[in-house]
Amino acid sequence: MYILVIEDNPDLVANLYDYLERHGHTIDVAYDGSSGLRFAQERRYDVMVLDLMLPGMDGLEVLERIKEQNLPAQVIMLTATKTVKTAVTAMRRGPRTSDAALSRRELSTPPE
């Protein structure tokens, strides 16, 4: 699989890179939202691992632009935020949000 990791934490990037590479995947890394979006526009990825809180352009904006441009990849969001509202916003803005995934309901309490 061809994977793009958009994450500004070098330790997390190193862990993801080592794990994914050991399992036979090809990985590109961008440390900010603008660079990540540029990579996504220039290459075709099977999966993008996208942090929510990035310098410059944040993950939600990157996600919105990926959706607007119909870029063909599945997106996995990473975040340290503890709010359900932010997680639901990210799911709704995602390129392949489905009613089944959200079950047409708002989450009222964070998962345990």
What does this structure look like?
With 112 residues, this protein is an alpha/beta fold. It has one domain: Response regulator (Rossmann fold), CATH 3.40.50. The chain has 5 helices and 4 strands. Strands 2-1-3-4 form a 4-stranded parallel β-sheet, sandwiched between helices. The C terminus is likely disordered.
The ordered H/E elements are: EHEHEHEHH
How many structural domains? Answer: 1
Count up the helices: 5
CATH homologous superfamily heading: Response regulator
Strand order of the largest sheet: 2-1-3-4
Q: Given this structure, which CATH class is correct?
A: Alpha Beta
Unreliable spans:
97-112
Helix amount, in percent? Answer: 40-55%
Q: What is the gyration radius calculated from CA atoms? A: 14 Å
**The CATH architecture:** 3-Layer(aba) Sandwich
How much strand? Answer: 15-25%
Structural class: alpha/beta
Task: State the separation between the terminal residues, measured CA to CA.
Answer: 31 Å
What do the pLDDT scores average to? 79
Major beta-sheet overview:
4 strands, parallel
Query: What is the CATH T-level topology?
Result: Rossmann fold
Number of strands: 4
Globally, the shape reads globular
